[in-house]
Amino acid sequence: MKCVCERCALLGGALLARLPKEQVARLSCVFRTGRYRRNRVLYQEGDPAGRVLALRAGLVKLVKRLENSRERIVRVVFPGELFGLEALAERTYALSAVTLEESEVCATGPEELFAFLRQDAEIALEMVRFLVNEVGRMRAQVTEMSFKDARRKVATFLLAVTPAGKEQGAEAGWTTLAFSRGEISSLLELSAETVSRTFSALRRARLIEARGRRLTIRDRAGLEKAAQREGSAGCGRGGRRG
User: Fold this and answer.
1) 209 near 216, Cβ under 8 Å?
2) Cα 187 to Cα 94, 131, 173, 214, distances in angstroms
3) Are 141 and 176 in contact (CB under 8 A)?
4) Element (H, E) at 106
5) Nearest Cα to 198, choosing from 185, 186, 211?
């Protein structure tokens, strides 16, 4: 399906916000959109890197295979973010990409993208700026999470995956998390027990309410503060995996 770029969270937003609509419309000839159900493998580690992808809606996890046949979640892709960037310079994908929920993904081949960029210097420059900012953002995210304790990691994660405005515990404000506790543990580099204890601590503080995978933020401002300051006893660095 043809990508409608001017309505895309990525291409019509941070990447091309400063460009005329005519230029944005031309990019729709390059990207194609597909809709995928939960747990759909978009590409696997070691596959030929043939597509650059942008997430338009949904959630995608990027995972690394471990020697013991387990997998480690390296990154969660949110709407408006690029992934599969190995296709711009490498022959194979370094990670696997799997949808966490029903998702809408825009994709294009690297050569097709390069050919288009050669024809439009303005869009090419915006792409370079965007990719540099993406690399800086991902590096800052990794560094920030490395120095956060368990309470701040979990609070930051919940703020990222729960849409703003879904507060106060009203039934309409509940979100079904796309992640199991095990997946959260893998992503945040915490033990499953530490994740459970931290969820319980945030519930006792009346910041969140959770029922299985269903969750609502009762106090977003309070959770934002929890994401920025050191946690209390029982939710600190001691729960991090060695």
Assistant:
1) yes
2) 17, 23, 25, 19
3) no
4) strand 103-108
5) 185
Residue given tokens 């966490």 in the structure block: 100
Residues in contact with 64: Cβ distance below 8 Å, sequence separation at least 6, in sequence order: 45, 71, 72, 74, 94, 95, 96
Q: Which CATH architecture has domain 5-144?
A: Sandwich (2.60)
Q: Residue type at 232?
A: S
For each successive 10 residues of the chain (242 residues), what is the average pLDDT?
52 58 66 91 96 90 84 85 89 94 92 85 80 76 75 90 59 77 86 92 93 89 86 42 44
Domain residue spans of the chain: 5-144, 148-239
- Please state which architecture CATH assigns to domain 148-239: Orthogonal Bundle (1.10)
